[in-house]
Amino acid sequence: MSKRKKYIISSTIATVWLVVINLSPLEYRYWLIASLSLFSLLLLAWSTGPSWRGIVRLSTGIMLVMYSAGAGMFTFLLPEIVPGLWLWSWGVEAGRWVSWVLRGLFWLAGFNGFYSIFSTANIYAVATMRAIALARAAVGIGFFITLVIGFFSYNALWSFRLPFYWNFLGSFLISLPLIWQALWSVNLRQKHSWQLLLVSAVYAIIIAQFALVFSFWPVIVGMASLALTAALYVLVGLAQFDVMKKLFTSTIYEYLLVGLGVFVTVYTFTNWRN
Question: Which positions ≥6 away from 251 have C-beta within 8 Å?
């Protein structure tokens, strides 16, 4: 059986598991999320084969486990009824159908995410042994998946409405492995180094400090998640260009402009009166 067929089968199984999580009672969802996170590693090992070993196993394993957990936790936020949007209202019955459409789109996106991670893991594994043309594309896909995982994870953390110190610690623990695997993927032949871990920890602390600040803002869950994901985008994006020795002034301005735009958006949509 070809690896592509294995990716499709594994992604389908993981997506069906995600559907089961979404349709299960709330008291069972945490167990199902934990089981999906662990079982997805077996799917990754089966799909990738013997080449999935060493530091590639750690890097892609982090990505897959956090994606599975983040997507599973995000199912808590999917509405059962969408009676309207902004100034439009279509009633309860139509709202149920809209809700199913949104769930279907989420499940489809979940399948694409799983498939991308399985494919990226295989490319990483091969690129650690020899240079291949797809390595640079895999890094870009991995960066995008990292941002998606960050948004899911920050969203789940913020939805618990925890005190500021737990938001700080939780954001740090979420950001550290995400940043580490994203920076490692830039040079796939490098081995683990304490310097890479230290740099990742410093960037994770910066994001955690943003989370600490937003804990005192009257910001909604989605906006807080968006702001932290934007911080992840700016820091990891600039760090990757720095590792590649391609960090130019124009690149810095571009990333900072995106971060500033998101910050202004979050500040604008924050209800300061409450």
Answer: 238, 241
